[in-house]
Amino acid sequence: MPNPPRVGLYPGTFDPITHGHFEIICRATKIVDKLVIGVAKNAGKGPLFDTKTRVKLVEAEIAPLIEGGAQIEVRAFDNLLIHYAKEIGAELIIRGLRAVSDFEYEFQMAGMNHRMCKEVETVFLMASDRHQFISSRFVKEIAFLGGDISSFVSEKVVKEIQKRLSDQNGRKKISPEVRD
Question: Is 65 a domain residue?
């Protein structure tokens, strides 16, 4: 009898999805049979894009991976991460780490999740040196201030951010206090 597929969950706000996120997704597909990318609704973070748009942007970014045979799903969620992991049958929660500053928060979250459900493990993947400084928050701030974000996100994401930041008169629609 074959083993059931190993399901991994890569959660995040993905507001917007960056090259760093994409790198972690690519690497995560190598350690699980099926990857679920959980797009957190998380209105408390004041996202630039609504959940539906963020899901569509993630789906567009990963389309080449799916065409290449990777088993990936993108789903929105708004409940407790560990409950969502159990709901979808995930054995692993995959988290990307950029710097030591990420580690403390992620370490605490992994400990809390393990306390609530010992069957779900957290796996940390270190960002490559090429992407370790990229954050969605910085991308949004740079875009708002008129900087070039094309080396941090895909062309499609650049266009969506430009569209979102400009109204019909070309004025900025959001404040620079955007959050990751």
Answer: yes
In the residue annotation, 54 being an active-site residue is answered as no
Per cent of the chain over pLDDT 90 is 76
| For the chain, the helix, strand and coil percentages under 3-state DSSP, each to the nearest 5 | 40, 20, 40
Tell me if residue 131 is catalytic: no
98 is catalytic: yes
Task: Check 6, 27, 41, 45 and give the catalytic one.
Answer: 45
Residue 45 falls in the annotated catalytic set: yes
The answer to whether the predicted template modeling score (pTM) of the entire model surpasses 0.70 is yes
Contact 173, 38 (CB under 8 A): no
Q: Is 24 a member of any domain?
A: yes
Domain count across the chain: 1
Q: Say which CATH number the domain at 126 has.
A: 3.40.50.620
Q: Model confidence over 61-94: pLDDT tens digits?
A: 999 999 999 999 999 999 999 999 999 999 999 9
Euclidean distance between the first and the last CA atom of the chain, given in angstroms as a whole number: 44
